[in-house]
């Protein structure tokens, strides 16, 4: 089980130069520095990086913590304003396009409909490529650059490939993207525009991941494994840092997100754990883990009280970004976080998600992608169940934009045409 440990800096201004970053297996004590070839499995005991996730060990006194907060007021508007808590030692290796620092919008009308006075939307549509995956891509590509990786592969349903393609192009790193066959054509064309080699696979997302892994192994190149890599999850921590700062150094009561592999909630929980350790917030929020009814292995296992999730071999959902039928140890991680900090796992149907798209658009003026709409549909469900209390501070991750529009949302053309008679 892996952890990132950052050695105590000599002084805050020289932190980037003096800091050293290492991975450590909490099971057997094996350690590895970032400068070495990082593996996803501990070579000594076989423990996976995902299990128990990353635990930070820092020794920052109160004066240094206050100085860090003071520095934030004058720093750039990107996730790298929190660079001391991110796994890149040399700032020259940072690959950034101003990602992060997205608006936190008070959803007053939608909240009034649900009886939730303090419902907020984290508007991640406003990233460089239109989704919250820009955070993941920025940190992951920066770590690759620092480690001298020049070529890599990944599997994606769309947003990850698009974000990584843009950042890989900026870093000069060659990328191979294995994607599901029904990825929207406009998104596919944009991924190709960045120079990424794209391979469409006729099969489930889980099958796509296997093919990408086999390709990377045969070609001898790096494989980005999402939640099983330290960098991507570290990027998601920045959501927690921003939320705390935007809420005047308070934690929300709930963080809710549509989930496939679970990287977002895992990173958010980790971020709040670190802020709590440093004395900036007093708690980690409860997690609302939402999955589509046609592919909800985590939800089914959680409601049945099971320690592991049974794979869904044939996902029955059109919300492809969330169609991960085999969550593996991601479920165990998220279940552990929910057991520790509160929250729940719930499902919602595709139809509810599409209907909710219209509700969010007409009440708050925000056009969301299906994965985000599912999170809102789940929020509505939890509010009706009474799981969320009227005074709770609730943050829903609006993880991406509607565009390119999927036909399921609009159910065909909704535009009326007037024919002008010129006679």
Strand content: 15-25%
- Total tally of structural domains: 3
- Kindly report how far apart the N and C termini lie: 77 Å
Question: How would you sum up the major sheet?
Answer: 6 strands, mixed
What is the total tally of β strands?
A: 13
Instruction: Tell me the radius of gyration.
Output: 21 Å
H and E order: EHEEHEHEHEHEHEHEHEHEHHEHHEH
User: Overall mean pLDDT score?
Assistant: 85
Report the CATH C-level class of the largest domain: Alpha Beta
Show unreliable segments.
1-20, 48-61
Shape: globular
Supply the helix-strand structural class.
alpha/beta
Describe the structure in your own words.
Helix 6 links the parallel strand 7 and strand 8. The N terminus is likely disordered. The chain has 14 helices and 13 strands. It starts with a strand and ends in a 13-residue tail after the last helix. 38% of the residues lie in helices and 16% in strands. Strands 4-5-13-10-11-12 form a 6-stranded mixed β-sheet, sandwiched between helices. A 4-stranded parallel β-sheet has the order 8-7-6-9, with helices on both faces. A 3-stranded antiparallel β-sheet has the order 1-2-3, with no helix packed on it. It has 3 domains: 89 residues, no CATH class; 204 residues, Rossmann fold (3-Layer(aba) Sandwich), CATH 3.40.50.1100; 96 residues, Rossmann fold. The chain is of the alpha/beta class and 423 residues long. The longest helix is centred in the middle third of the chain and has 17 residues.
């Amino acid at each position: 089980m892996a952890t990132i440990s950052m050695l105590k800096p000599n002084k805050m201004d020289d932190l980037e130069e003096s800091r050293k970053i290492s991975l450590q297996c909490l099971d057997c004590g094996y350690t590895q520095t970032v400068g070495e070839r990082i593996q996803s499995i501990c070579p000594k005991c076989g423990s996976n990086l995902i299990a128990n996730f990353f635990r930070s060990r820092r020794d920052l006194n109160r004066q240094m913590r206050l100085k860090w907060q003071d520095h934030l007021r004058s720093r750039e508007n990107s996730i790298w304003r929190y660079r001391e808590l991110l796994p890149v030692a040399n700032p020259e290796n940072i690959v950034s396009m101003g990602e992060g620092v997205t608006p936190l919008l008070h959803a007053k009308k939608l909240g009034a409909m649900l009886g939730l006075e303090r419902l907020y939307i984290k508007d991640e549509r406003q990233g460089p490529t239109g989704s919250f995956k820009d955070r993941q891509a920025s940190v992951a590509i920066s770590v690759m650059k620092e480690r001298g990786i020049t070529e890599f592969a990944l599997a994606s349903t769309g947003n990850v490939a698009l974000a990584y393609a843009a950042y890989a192009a900026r870093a000069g790193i060659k990328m191979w993207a294995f994607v599901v066959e029904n990825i929207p054509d406009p998104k596919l064309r944009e991924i190709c525009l960045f120079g990424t080699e794209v391979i469409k696979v006729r099969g489930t997302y889980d099958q796509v991941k296997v093919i990408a892994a086999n390709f990377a192994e045969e070609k001898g190149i790096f494989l980005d494994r999402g939640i099983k890599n330290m960098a991507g999850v570290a990027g998601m921590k920045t959501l927690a840092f921003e939320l705390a700062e935007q809420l005047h150094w308070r934690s929300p009561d709930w963080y809710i997100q549509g989930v496939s592999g679970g990287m977002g909630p895992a990173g958010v929980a980790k971020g709040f754990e670190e802020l709590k350790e440093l004395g900036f917030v007093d708690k980690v929020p409860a997690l609302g883990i939402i999955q589509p009814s046609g592919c909800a292995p985590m939800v089914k296992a959680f409601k049945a009280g099971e320690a592991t999730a049974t794979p869904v071999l044939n996902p029955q959902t059109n919300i492809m970004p969330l169609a991960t039928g085999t969550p593996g140890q991601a479920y165990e991680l998220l279940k552990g976080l929910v057991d520790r900090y509160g929250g729940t796992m719930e499902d919602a149907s595709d139809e509810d998600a599409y209907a909710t798209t219209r509700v969010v658009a007409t009440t708050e003026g925000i056009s969301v992608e299906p994965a985000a709409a599912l999170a809102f549909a789940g929020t509505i469900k939890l509010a009706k169940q009474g799981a969320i209390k009227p005074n709770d501070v609730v943050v829903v991750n609006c993880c991406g934009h509607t565009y390119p529009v999927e036909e399921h949302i609009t159910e065909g053309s909704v535009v009326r045409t007037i024919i002008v008679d010129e006679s």
